[in-house]
Amino acid sequence: MAPACAPSTLNPSAALAGGAVTVSPAPDTLDASFLTQISFLGVPAADVADVAVVGSRSGPHPGRLLAYSQGDGASFLPSKPFTQGEVVTVHAVLRQGAGTTPFAWRFTVAELDAASRSLETPPPPPPPPSPSEFQHFVSRPDLRPPAVAVTTNTGSQAPGDMFLAPYAGPGQYGPMILDGAGKLLWFKAIPSGARAADLRVQEYEGRPVLTWWQDPLVAAGRRNAGIVIADSSYKDISIVRAGNGYQPDLHAFEITPRGTALFTLYAAIRCNLSAHGGPVNGAVADTLVQELDLKTGLVRFEWHSLDHVALADSYMPVGHGGTPPSPWDYFHINAVSEPGGNLLVDSRNTWAAYDVDPRGGQVAWTLGGKHSSFAMGPGASPAWQHDAREQPDGTISFFDNGGTPKVHSQSRVIVLALDLSHMTATLVSSFDHSTPLLAPSQGDFQSLPGGNWFVGWGQEPYFSEFAPEGRLLFDAHLPAAYQSYTVLEFPWSGNPTQPPQLAVRARSHGGLVAYASWNGATSVAQWRLLGGASPHALAPLAAVPRSGFETAIAVPTTSRYLAVQALDAQGQVLSTSATIRF
After folding, report:
1. Mapping DSSP to helix (H, G, I), strand (E, B) and coil, where does residue 221 land?
2. Which CATH number fits domain 146-490: 3.40.50.300, 2.120.10.30, 3.50.50.60, 3.30.470.20?
3. How much is the pTM?
4. In the chain, what are the helix, strand and coil shares in percent, each to the nearest 5?
5. What is the pLDDT of residue 115?
């Protein structure tokens, strides 16, 4: 028989020693990792002393206490793993001036569900490729990103570029940037068999960077899921892995101003589900949030849904899983953010978002679901939703999938005003697609500077921008077979270190055409063609405006050697291609 996986008393506090220290794993949790660190957050590392860790089966665990780079805590790293199923007792002392405060707690190590498949449903095998479904470039024949069909473009969009990571179609997969008109700026083809997701611009060490999830991500001898952080030249500057033996999940990776990252994570553990109509020897998806110190890789904080939200709160029937090969995804965490000090955690399968106090990990309020803290006004209740976000004005937005199973007639995006005095939630804005879309999974909703809204329609491969009052400003889509978990809009300046690429082809009716491109460069306004009888004596032959990812330039005279220069809006040379002989 499998063990219990949720404590008898839910929503405990992880703040000990008079509330001064937040510990992970949480007191009395039943789902700690056998590879867990033991985290002490909230006081300087030097104030934590006399740490003693004993497993009920594995015995004493010596280890090292390593400080967080933020100066507000430390992790104890045991010298050996714990034993699955055992109870671990931790004793420590908090030094406060001349006094000391001893504190202790215990937790149970989960038993892993070794038979489970991946908790993320892989896409179906791609259909046979059709040349019309992906883009082709003479100067970059190695790149085959999906085609983009723009159906509405008013020219009134907010400034910025569009960020997505397509997969599931017949072409290449990888992170992809489009300009404001939907034309390709950058594409990184990832290895066959890998997927990327959640491409976005964030700030890291004081500069804008790209981040995306990739699985598998091969680096430093590892081949599992990870997060890439790349600079404005598209060079990888960090590969981030989750701690405590977990792998990062595709749903969320948020860099905080203090140099940490918030992840969503999934793990399958054994669980007796007989009280919920499932098997005695069942399995459940343990879904959690982890905060990682990016400089040290130490785990500062960990929050598990099983400790705080009842299994009975799920709308996903236990019959849809619950066995070791297919664990019950009762919660399905898909977003975490830190809008005002607290964490906002979104759960697709309980139809609710949770305000979590990171000092003790306790849920302060629940928005939506079976036990909402708020009276939900007409049209305010989400179902199977994604991407819960607190907006600058305090409203909460959702990408409200509404299926599947079908709850709403179509997917929509909603904005709710919360009245914390009267505990009511009121629908203040709602957006849907002019062609009804019902996205079974994925999706996002983003507020833009100036009041516009940007929507990625998830499993339906559409993305749209709306004016504040709901008028459609931009709409585009990928071919039907593709998906992109999110599509987002950000300002971006890309400056690749590789030079532009040039290819030359003969025209069927005579003469030559040069094709110029520079993958990722955002400042190119025009191209200048150079030619001459010698590679050391090139002169300008023509100049044309940039016309998308690849620009065709008619070669006006016969030249043995050709090159192109990328020019900015002021006519300054940004970079020059290699010279080719033709």
Report:
1. coil
2. 2.120.10.30
3. 0.96
4. 5, 45, 50
5. 76
